[in-house]
Amino acid sequence: xxxxxxxxxxxxxxxxxxxxxxxxxxxxxxxxxxxxxxxxxxxxxxxxxxxxxxxxxxxxxxxxxxxxxxxxxxxxxxxxxxxxxxxxxxxxxxxxxxxxxxxxxxxxxxxxxxxxxxxxxxxxxxxxxxxxxxxxxxxxxxxxxxxxxxxxxxxxxxxxxxxxxxxxxxxxxxxxxxxxxxxxxxxxxxxxxxxxxxxxxxxxxxxxxxxxxxxxxxxxxxxxxxxxxxxxxxxxxxxxxxxxxxxxxxxxxxxxxxxxxxxxxxxxxxxxxxxxxxxxxxxxxxxxxxxxxxxxxxxxxxxxxxxxxx
Length: 310
What we know:
Rossmann fold, four-stranded parallel sheet
């Protein structure tokens, strides 16, 4: 169903496409562990454009395309003319003549959308300031592993900045039927249009989506808690202000005491211990968090396999 399509946002996915990605990711993970090769993308090339650096994104995509039988080409802003005079639409049209898929990690969502408009090959959003769909699909796969395949009715709490992760959690939870509560300070809410879109998606699944101020209100009886850095890439000048604003928006033992006794904790990493999450909580849930990190590989393989296949 996803053959030849772009993956720019979870909101754009049909319910069947959303389910297909998670099921394919689980199968590819199982097959990799069993030593079953799956070279569905033999001879295919993925252009990997990085305007924002990342450990997990680069390694997981490059390893993933290799395991699927293809190759990845790393392209930073030092390697291409993007942002140095050549319009995005020209770069997109040129690359589409050379490669079979384009992955881009950048600042503006509009840049990814323009790539998709002009490139005749699938474009994958590996992160923008607005959305991080690959990570949230990964987190949903991890939830399935720990909480069961059917996530409908699960209670999810996100504590912290209403950033690209919060936005994508709204979309992902809406599609999965997960009740999602986001606790954030005033002025740091998720994108208003994203919230409106997600609430429309949620009508089909019965998911309840809420924005609150009190982390304890969000965490009460939660089955899954998640957080992210208080200061995202590109916001470094705001770090001092943000660290004051987000005091209290931390996943710690006190917050976990009001959650469900079998709750799990997720973090997309890198984690800043003592800020958004305490050292003891991170280490207590390290198995879950590093399973989550590993699952970036399997989820992104599923996205590539489904969109770039013949």
